Each structure stands twice: as C-alpha cells, then as structure tokens.
Amino acid sequence: MAVCDSVYRFLRANHGRRCTAPLTGQDARALRSFVHLVELYRVADETGARCALEAMRATVGAMQTHTRWMAREAIAAVADWEDRERVWREMFPDEPCGGSRRSGEGA
What is the distance between the alpha carbons of residues 27 and 59, in angstroms, rounded to a whole number? Predict the structure, then answer.
C-alpha cells in the first residue's frame, strides 16, 4: 500500500476514526500530494529538499485552514514523530503554529 493511501489509516489510528471526515476532495488530494512530497524531502539533496519544502508549503495552502493540522501529523506517517515539528517549522518559519492546530484547540 502506498504511503499516500496508508496515511488515512495512520491518522485515524492516532487521532480518531472520524478525524478525516472534514477533508474535501481538494483537501484529500492535497494531503496525498503532501505525503509524497515528505517522502521526496527525506531523500533529496539540499536543493531538492528546499524545493520539496516549497511545494509542501503550497500543498498545505491548498487545504482548508481547519484541515491543515492533518498534514503536520502526516509527517510522522512518512518520517519519525520527532521530525514533525522540525519539518513543519522549516515549512512555516515565520508562523508560530503554521495552521497546525486542530479546529478548537488553543493557541
């Protein structure tokens, strides 16, 4: 199973069975693309990693604000749990949370 397919299983196992319900068709495709870009980021050289981060940022921007937290969590489906925050901060260095909080969570 491709990691972009297994990301839903990963998210549901870690955040609840219905956590992916808010994803629209566009959100779902953006999330799948994001996961592939995380894979690229992990194996790329410096230039490739920089380009992957740029593409990851744009892909997250294509998601609804209240679903973006899933992209941040999906980093751990491809990399390690510890990589989540570091990669997210590389993507959004000027934003404290980068839109990574679930709807309703405190700042």
Answer: 9
Q: Which own/partner contact pairs does 63-67 have at CB distance under 8 Å and 24+ positions apart?
A: 63/26, 63/27, 63/30, 63/31, 64/22, 64/24, 64/27, 65/99, 66/22, 66/102, 66/103, 67/22, 67/23, 67/24, 67/27, 67/31
User: Is-contact 7 35, C-beta < 8 A?
Assistant: yes
pTM: 0.85
In the DSSP assignment, the letter for residue 102 is P
Residue 76 has pLDDT above 90, yes or no: yes
